[in-house]
Amino acid sequence: MASMLNTGLQSEQNIEVHKFYGGSVVLVSFVALILQAFLHKYGRWADVVDLPLLVVIYFGVSRRNPVTGLLLGAAIGIFQDGLSHDNPIGLYGIAKTLVGYVASTIGAHLDTDHPVARFVLTFLFFHFHQCVLAFTERALLNQPAPYFSLHLLLDSLISAAVSVFLFAALDRLRKSA
Amino acid sequence: MIGALSRHRPLALLAGVVLAQVLLLAYQIRRAHDVRLIRYWSVEASTPVARGGTWLFSHLGGLWSGYIGLRNARTENEELRAKVAQMELRNRELETQANEAHRLELLLNFRQVHPEVQMLAAQVIEASADPASETLVINRGEQDRVKRNMAVITPDGIVGKVVEVFHSTSQVTLMTDKNMGVGAMFADTRTHGVIKGTGDPQPVMDYVVNDEKVAVGETIITSGEDRIFPKGLLVGVVASAKEGTPFEKIAVRPAARLDRLEDVIVLLTQEELAPGKPGTPFAVSPVPPSPPAEPSAQTKAAPARSLSPALARTNPDPKADSSAGSQANPSGNADNPAVVRAMPAGKTDQQSAPAR
């Protein structure tokens, strides 16, 4: 896996900033949020994959702009909080803001188009997102949220696997150079 | 600061966005007692600042007020000193008024205790310029029906007699004057004698034989033989007594404070005063009932007749002799009622004469 990551690492001059068709970012984000909320009522398996998180990671590493990345993360997170009836506004917003910022920053230095790199990044961002969430819940809500568990590990692996296919599908929304 | 923000614009924006969401979360979250977390944070954040500010302002205020206080202390101190001086002066005035009121109260009580006796309250307005002359001037005179040889007393004891009467003032000779004599007797033994002034603060009681046992502190009252002072008024107490030739030398401490007289009473009549009521300041000693006739008592109470020359010598005013009904020579006449009244019941001049 390390060799695959190394193959993805390129110099900063060679990293391309991808452009997307107009409205595609908003549309994809909106669909991910609606789909997440829609699938939620069909059972716990829908919560395994956090589609808004995957969207934030993808556009963050693709656009490679920290400002747009963090703003997109904040918008998607707040929207996700709004759709959940029991979460205070800002809980997912903070976590996804940080994920968007870090993803954009990392994307500016790494070539994240390789499937393995995407799998690893998604896996790591999943746990980073979970850590921020747990910290926020513990610090602000006084709720004992776990930083890590086997269940979360399984979810992160599934999300990482889904992201490989999802990101490949989303690559079709890129404008050709 | 602005330059640093522009250089790290993404990071600053991240911090701003996260902070905004944290605040948004804090606004929604409620802690114990349904208090919003943002309010809890606000209070927690502002409390140390408020405490520090309060401490700072209180100390600064204390320093400032201390500085202002020091600046004003000197002026205030001077003002307070002036006020204290005024208050002390006022206090002395009030004390003087209180003392005067007390003296007047005593005089009033005296008058109330003895309504049967015509008396006149007077103030001492002047003392004699001659230190050897024991006289003073009172503010009552002819217009107030004051006459020569009227007795002047205080509630504490006798003072003297009126020797000169003017239109609105009178001159009084004190009992300590060299030319003054007062018929007196011991309150307990009823032994008679004559109080003679010496010019000193303590007059002497003369014509008491050496055989008489006189104790220091023994009370002396007027006998009424001089026809000036009614019988039974307090004269003073024995200050010292020793044998002499031919009579005992007895120094008397006057009951009245003759050195600080301010208000006195002029007795307009020589009517005998009734005993004072218990608890009143009236110091006139009650005259006990006459003891049964005994040979020894007779010898002690006998000097009525022989008092006459002594009293005559002590009276310098020949006019007073005639006007006062021969007060300086009350005896010489066995029928003199004053002398008879002064003697114990059942005694006669003949009985008392051999004792002299």
3D architecture notes:
- The complex is a heterodimer of chains A (177) and B (356).
- Chain A is mostly helical.
- Chain A has a single domain, classed as Arp2/3 complex 21 kDa subunit ARPC3, CATH 1.10.1760.20.
- In chain A, 68% of the residues lie in helices and 0% in strands.
- Chain A has seven helices and no strands.
- In chain A, α4 (66-83) packs antiparallel against α5 (91-107) and α5 runs antiparallel to α6.
- The longest helix of chain A has 27 residues, at 115-141.
- The two termini of chain A are 29 Å apart.
- Chain B has 356 residues and is of the alpha+beta class.
- Chain B folds into two domains: 30-113; 122-287, Thrombin, subunit H (Beta Barrel), CATH 2.40.10.
- Chain B has helices spanning 2-7, 9-28, 37-113, 295-300, 307-314, 318-323, 337-342, 349-352; strands spanning 119-127, 135-138, 151-153, 158-165, 170-174, 181-186, 192-196, 204-206, 219-222, 234-242, 249-254, 263-267.
- Chain B has a six-stranded antiparallel β-barrel with strand order 1-2-5-4-3-12. A six-stranded antiparallel beta barrel of chain B has the order 6-7-8-11-10-9.
- In chain B, a hairpin with a 4-residue loop joins β3 (151-153) and β4.
- Residues 277-356 of chain B have low confidence and may be disordered.
- Chains A and B meet through α4, α5 and α6 of A and α2 of B.
Short key terms for the protein model shown above:
heterodimer, A: 177 residues, Arp2/3 complex 21 kDa subunit ARPC3, 7 helices, B: 356 residues, alpha+beta, 8 helices, disordered C terminus
Q: How would you summarize this macromolecular structure in one to three sentences?
A:
By secondary structure, chain A is an all-alpha fold. Chain A is 68% helix and 0% strand.
Helix and strand layout, with pairings?
The complex is a heterodimer of chains A (177) and B (356).
Chain A: H1 2-8, H2 24-40, H3 51-63, H4 66-83, H5 91-107, H6 115-141, H7 150-170
Chain B: H1 2-7, H2 9-28, H3 37-113, E1 119-127, E2 135-138, E3 151-153, E4 158-165, E5 170-174, E6 181-186, E7 192-196, E8 204-206, E9 219-222, E10 234-242, E11 249-254, E12 263-267, H4 295-300, H5 307-314, H6 318-323, H7 337-342, H8 349-352
Antiparallel strand pairs in B: 1-2, 1-12, 2-5, 3-4, 3-12, 4-5, 6-7, 6-9, 7-8, 8-11, 9-10, 10-11
Helix pairs in contact in B: 2-3
